[in-house]
């Protein structure tokens, strides 16, 4: 059996600005994606045979059918290539589901990448990007080898960039946020449409903002409280990632991040993770 073991990383958004809305209803965004050292583990196998996909998610309550992005990525790959393969995926989740960390998108991208490798690269990068975009707006970012990229349009127009190394404390409050709900709640306001990326923006944490925070915090004030707690513990910046619910605090030193992590773990009982920028 041809198989691969893969590590699919989480992401955070160092900023997320909403620029407008397309005719199809999708929001136009300007964001900075950063991969971090929290991974889902994937064992992927593909062998000739009747075309089918079998997905296992041990220790998780995730669906193992077509609602799962990893499953859908496999079907899409098989449809696009016309290959008759028996695909088996064992997905061990570590990235919180519905936490704004891109776990499902990362899983889907790595399944696409892995199957393409196992099948001896029948698809080129533009086709993989197109398939990834059809699965979700965050999926193409995870196809990139680069650890950070600017995302424009719905997040699928990508420009590789570099960011300063930081440590991050991730705080998952124990509930998920629907991305669709968060964007639907957001009321567009007039904003300068310029999406020129200034590298200083990634360095200057005072420039970091997430336009979705206001609507999400209005319904889930715990997220605002976590932000305030992280700032009081010495974070340079604290921000909700994506559409939530995970909040991250940025730290220049690992020791400072560890102290904040320890305080949050002992006092709050949140799910917390110490990660670094990849």
List the helices and strands and how they pair.
Layout: E1 2-21, E2 27-48, E3 52-56, H1 69-81, E4 85-92, H2 103-118, H3 125-135, H4 139-143, E5 148-152, E6 157-160, E7 167-172, H5 179-185, H6 200-203, H7 213-219, H8 221-232, E8 237-240, E9 247-251, H9 254-267, E10 271-276
Parallel strand pairs: 3-4
Antiparallel strand pairs: 1-2, 2-4, 2-5, 5-6, 7-9, 7-10, 8-9
- Please state the overall shape, judged from the principal axes of the Cα atoms: globular
- Determine the oligomeric state from the structure: single chain
Label the structural class: alpha+beta
Radius of gyration: 19 Å
Number of helices: 9
| Low-pLDDT segments, ≥5 res | none
Q: What is the annotated CATH architecture of the largest domain?
A: 2-Layer Sandwich
Strand content: 25-35%
Tell me the name of the CATH class of the largest domain. Alpha Beta
Q: Order of helices and strands, N to C? A: EEEHEHHHEEEHHHHEEHE
The major sheet is characterized as: 6 strands, mixed
What count of structural domains?
2
Mean pLDDT: 90
Span of the ends, CA to CA = 31 Å
